[in-house]
Amino acid sequence: MIIDRTSGTRRLGYPAAAGVFAVGMAGTTLPTSLYGLYRAQLGFSELIVTVVFAVYALGVITVLLLAGNVSDEVGRRPVLLCALALSAASALCFVFEGGLPMLLLGRVLSGFAAGLFSGAATAAVLELARPGQEAHAGFAATAANMGGLGCGPLLSGLLAQYAPWPLVLPFLVHLLLVAGAAGVTWFLPETVGTPHRLHRLRPQGLRLPPEVRGVFTPAAVAAFAGFALLGLFTAVAPSFVADTLGDHNLAVAGLIVFTVFLGSTAGQSLTERIGVRRALPGGCLVLVLGLLLVATSLAVTSLPLLVIGAVCGGVGQGLAFRAGLTAVGRAAPPAHRGGTISAFFLVAYLGISLPVVGVGALTLVLGLRGAGLTFSACLIVLAVAVGLYVLRHPPADEN
């Protein structure tokens, strides 16, 4: 039940919550275009880049396990404000960066923020929708997530390439955005009817309400495969562009990462028309096509093919991701929606973290191109398997 404090807060509605969600998620990918600069400044390897990225994902997973359902108890607004505070603290770590430990701390804090945003912000956007707006709100939630993730590398790449203080200015800009988002969050209506104080945190595990268990497995496995592709682009695509394809423009690197998330948003926009039942296996098929294009681009050293593969893979990921999130959100009872959505994101973030560290390790033996080709081949096999699985166990479309 939505508590309508004032007519002004009511008018904010789900678009305002989606804007807050996008700002928060943009901060989590802001360092992506800057990893090459950090490598040159601090002298670490591509493996360390992927470890720094995985530390972020570890922070996300930790929060989802410990506090995935906390917004169901204390309310959406307090959790969103806490997530914004963690996002600001992460940005400050990068502003005053003094070496690898501060980078790691900043990424952990960013992961904590993303973990809180994933469940609480998604639930808030969905619950702020008025009758008849449910489909639009569902797209707004997933588009804010992916759009925010895509805008982070684009913003930092443009500022680092064409503005002064490349390792500081992107985070100062994000601090201003976080301050504005906090102001908006303060005036959002609370959507939890009877919030209460949380007495203690305890591991939540992956306990799911019975109503959602049947649909959760195919949706979460498809999300795992799609997020693995996102992890590849977010963690190491700038290095691929610079070292393998020979383009050292940071704005170009940020734009390429942005295209995969833009493709994801486009895929999400098509899900409602296609239907959840067809979007899950269809998304896996398109994801396989995108991976084939990415692998070909690395084999023949083609930047245009990499961009096309990024868009195509992003569309496939978006189709499968929104279909899965929609199916899980429909099946989850309101009292457990935040926790269920957090469990869904937990599986997805396992996909975005573990395989990417493997890529980093492979670069030490095979180099960037060989590691990228090996990763693409493994992910193609996984996506095909997932596609066959969801063809056999599809979630039902809403009647």
Folded structure, characterized:
- The structure is a single chain.
- With 399 residues, the chain is mostly helical.
- The chain has one domain (13-193, 209-392): MFS general substrate transporter like domains (Growth Hormone, Chain: A).
- 81% of the residues lie in helices and 0% in strands.
- The protein contains 13 helices and no strands.
- α7 runs antiparallel to α10 (250-274).
- The protein is globular.
- Residues 1-10 have low confidence and may be disordered.
Strand content: under 5%
The CATH architecture designation is: Up-down Bundle
Count of individual beta strands: 0
What Rg is obtained from the alpha carbons, in whole angstroms? 20 Å
| CATH class descriptor name | Mainly Alpha
Proportion of helical residues:
over 70%
GO molecular function, one term: transmembrane transporter activity
InterPro entries: MFS (IPR011701), MFS_dom (IPR020846), MFS_trans_sf (IPR036259), MFS_Transporters (IPR050171), Sugar_transporter_CS (IPR005829)
Membrane topology: Multi-pass membrane protein
Transmembrane segments: 12-35, 47-67, 79-98, 104-126, 138-159, 171-193, 214-237, 249-267, 279-300, 306-329, 341-366, 372-391
Features:
Growth Hormone, Chain: A, disordered N terminus, mainly alpha, 13 helices, transport, transmembrane helix, single chain
